[in-house]
Amino acid sequence: MALMSRRNITELSTIEFTGSLGAAFQHYGKQLTALAERWGTELDIAAVDAEAAMSTMKGHMLLFGLDSKVRARRVAKRLKRARDLAAALAERGESFHRSYRKHFLP
Fold this sequence. Notes:
By secondary structure, the protein is mainly α. The chain has 3 helices and no strands.
């Protein structure tokens, strides 16, 4: 059975690469950057909230709960890495149109 791919990110999927490609690529890059920045913000907030929630959990009695805080930091680090990837995606969105101009326009 063949799987059909779907484009569900409406901010990006509604942009068609027809007509003036420079304008279309610039618009796509701006939308990609905006979307990645929103994801980055959400992931940053989620990392802080998740770490705070996990830090309140009881840890080992002899360690005064410090083990829970360390484990919470490790788990939240995954969301922070995802945030960093979203920031890198935002940078790529900004450079998309510039790369097109560099390689295709005189």
